[in-house]
Amino acid sequence: MKGNLLVISGPSGSGKSSLMKEILQEISDAYFSISSTTRAIREGEKDGVNYHFISKEEFENDIDAGFFLEWAKVHDNYYGTSLKPILKELHEGKLVICDIDVQGHKIAREKFGSVITSVFITTPDQKSLKERLINRGTDSAEVIEKRLANAVSEMTRIREYDYLLINDEFKTTLSELFAIACASRKKMALMDLGEFMSAWANIE
Ligand code: 5GP
To answer: Which stretches of the chain drop beneath a pLDDT of 50?
Structure first.
């Protein structure tokens, strides 16, 4: 494996999707892992771009077929990351970006170890998260309450991540995320040191 995985988690409304979109534009060989989900498609979303929107039955068949690197139930819906495309992109040396929740991060970390660099993105406080979710206008009051409750529980696990970004000012957070994404590709654990060291020692 020559590539690496950048796992991004954080509450819905933290701004992580917009941040990831910018990173994907800036890093030409970055690949966004499109998850599968059983949740309803939101206005402005596209099937096969934001997610693969599939039925509960299809999702459960895919679980049985061992299709997922990880899957989890979040806000009463299934979400899962397909293994095959990720392995292909890693073998091609890509920076693979996954947007997954805390449960998915734990499983992915167990399977991929140091190939993963993880970032938790959140708002400065709970109040601003609620405001962002309301202003986004995509979810009912009931769904917003569920997302807030889920955010509170996700926040208890931020110590499991390599980096924490508090998205107060978008441009600042973007440059911080960009720096992390670039540094994640230079981890010693990813390098083929044997080959490099013998080439380096060769004077002629
Ligand atoms: P949303 O419905 O706002 O798009 O996403 C809800 C939550 O599901 C977010 O916390 C997001 O990170 C998480 N999520 C999205 N895709 C996956 C996935 O493939 N696996 C897991 N475990 N969580 C995911």
So the answer is: none
